[in-house]
Specification:
It contains six helices and no strands. It has two domains: 30 residues, no CATH class; 96 residues. By secondary structure, it is mainly α.
Length: 131
């Protein structure tokens, strides 16, 4: 075993004495860490991901009706080829899939919610400029 591999803990190692696990008894990058998140925290985070997808779809459609254009080339092609109903269906599906995947992944959920909130603010500010 080389030196770098010997530094990585194995699953059966007792890692509770290391600095990274001093508080929780688990590795900081453990997959199990986020699954211990309480239900009362996981539900609002997943709902935030789904809600920002809905707000993004609504603000995009309002902007498009005011004369703005979609900056995402994939969504722009989807809207121009198949119409806004397909766009809303894809955004709804994305919201459900992302909320399900982000379930109990606190950092990813919060990050995506913050990013999508910025997208919604961008969409609404562009719409207000056009009105």
């Amino acid at each position: 075993m080389d030196a770098a591999a010997s530094l990585l803990p194995r699953r059966d190692d007792d890692v509770t004495g290391s600095p990274a696990t001093a508080r929780t008894g688990r590795l900081l990058w453990s997959r199990e860490r986020d699954h211990d998140m309480p239900f009362r925290v996981a539900v609002p985070l997943a709902a935030g991901v789904a809600l920002t997808q809905v707000l993004d779809a609504m603000s995009t459609l309002v902007g498009l009706s005011a004369g703005a254009s979609e900056l995402n080339p994939i969504m722009d092609g989807l809207i121009s080829s198949y119409g806004p109903a397909t766009f809303v269906a894809v955004k709804a599906a994305a919201g459900v899939v992302l909320a399900g995947w982000m379930w109990r992944r606190a950092v990813w959920s919060a990050g995506l919610t913050a990013f999508m909130s910025a997208v919604v603010v961008w969409n609404l500010s562009a719409t207000l400029v056009l009105l």
